[in-house]
Design a protein that fits this description.
The protein starts with a strand and ends in a 9-residue tail after the last helix. The protein is built from six helices and nine strands; from the N terminus they run βααββββββαββααα. α5 packs antiparallel against α6. It is an alpha/beta fold and 222 residues long.
Length: 222
């Protein structure tokens, strides 16, 4: 007859990269290779361990029914299976989770204040109750001193909001500043002409120096 298995184990090919860290907690549990299923006399194995779903020829990971962390993408849930007389399976995923977890990227370019960033953030996350993680990027007005804590409570209708400041750059016009007959103009001109620095290094030095000249404390540049 048709031989099926149901167990908790780690098919080794699914352990690479983020799959291992996110879905396996960095550990293999009862590790096996996909070809071991047939060697054991099984037609198909239904498995638990990895949170990301997988529909392989001889094994199935349904994925965790409810998301446990940000970054758990792809379909997951319950799997309705039809098994033919020769052991071939037809699978249909059914979403059963009640929790909504979303990952967004938001552009802050053009924002001239923290309040403006908060307003844009509130619009970006939408009105659906969910757990949302937002990564900020873009060019922010040079006078805005933005910290993640400033955006707490920006969308109180959500179940939870996590904000990360990613590639956010101050919108300095370096070419215009370099033409100033000032100390900061000379500083910018010298850095722009520094052949030993890469473009990325120049930007970090320029932003850090200009912030220091403005008397600001947020000197760290991402």
């Amino acid at each position: 007859g048709v031989q099926l298995a149901l167990f908790h184990g780690s098919e080794r090919s699914g352990f690479a990269g983020a799959e291992g860290r996110v879905d396996g907690g960095g550990q293999l549990h009862v590790p096996f290779a996909a070809e071991d299923i047939g060697r054991a006399g099984l037609h198909h194995a239904f498995l638990g361990h990895y949170h990301r779903s997988k529909a392989a020829e001889c094994h199935t990971y349904p994925g965790n029914p409810d998301p446990l962390a940000f970054g758990e993408d792809g379909d997951r849930g319950a799997v309705v299976v039809e098994v033919s007389a020769d052991g071939v399976v037809e699978r249909e995923w059914r979403r059963v989770s009640e929790t909504r977890v979303r990952d967004l990227t938001m552009d802050v370019t053009g924002c001239g204040s923290v309040d403006e960033v908060r307003r844009r953030l509130g619009e970006a996350v939408g009105t659906e109750p969910a757990f949302v993680r937002v990564t900020l990027q873009g060019e922010l007005h040079q006078d805005v001193d933005l910290h993640e804590r400033d955006l707490a409570g920006a969308a109180p209708w959500l179940h939870g909001l996590l904000v990360r400041i990613g590639d956010v750059r101050p919108a300095y016009d370096f070419a215009s500043i370099a033409r100033e007959a000032t100390v900061r103009g000379k500083f910018v001109q010298d850095v722009l002409e520094a052949a030993a620095l890469s473009e990325t290094e120049k930007r970090r030095v320029l932003v850090t120096g200009l912030r220091a000249l403005e008397g600001r404390r947020d000197l760290e540049v991402r």
